[in-house]
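User: Hey, quick favor. My workstation is busy. Could you predict this chain's structure for me?
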Amino acid sequence: MGAPHRHASPASRQNQGRLAIVLVLAAGYMVAEAIGGILTGSLALLADAGHMLTDVVALSLGLFAVRLAQRSPTPQRTYGYHRTEILVALAQGALLVGVALALFVEAVQRLGAPHEILGGPMLAIAVGGLLVNLIGLALLAGGREHNLNVRGAWLHVLSDALGSAAAITAGVLLIAFGWSWVDPLASIAIALLIVRASWSLLREAVSVLMEWAPAHVNVEAIQDQLGSLPGVLAVHDLHVWTITSGMVALSGHVVAGADQEHGKLLQEVSDLLHERFGIDHATIQIEGEDFREPGGVCFP
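Assistant: No problem, here it is.
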């Protein structure tokens, strides 16, 4: 049970294909929304086009990360390039927050000086944007539960879909009542939604980079169950962390009784970690009662 390694899996290839298709859709409609926002004078459309630009950047980074993560480990990079996906997810979250702040500032400025807006064309373009985003969400949905990088891309598209919905609402109210202030107000709503969507992504990416135990793993339960195995006297120096999405690693020291066969105990530990906790990448050190650490500490 040593350093983990993996090659391009079917799921990884599927994620790569999904990201590529959504990237093409987002890039194409981004141009349409930018032109539409300029022609209609709608900040909500321009905001949505700007957000789609971040989608294009995020999807491009995500596609790059998926491909890079497929590279094999090297003697100096024993985990390969798997953490690239987490770094990209962190960049996606930071990018989302930056876009939200820019939208908020511009929207507040527009509230004080409303612009003339063509409601009909704005509404039509916003509806088209929503349809494109819904297609993107459907394509990425299959990979978002198991890959933080794909989840970041999915959140980008989701917040964009919410932005399109806000632009549609603004267009309807503008046509019905002539309320030009609804457009910047919709942009503020989009900005708040973007911040909310990015928070969980940033939090999880930071958790992985800090090598905290994943939320779904109960470290105390692992220690208790390892300690209850026959022949185990103590468990110490137990660490659980995430290398990349779906790849949980564990290391620990198990103190065995004098009559315990170490090879058999190691197999029992491995089976328990796999069957009860879904952990396959583990490094376990089996120690005797009289084993002393370099610092002179004796366990138990």
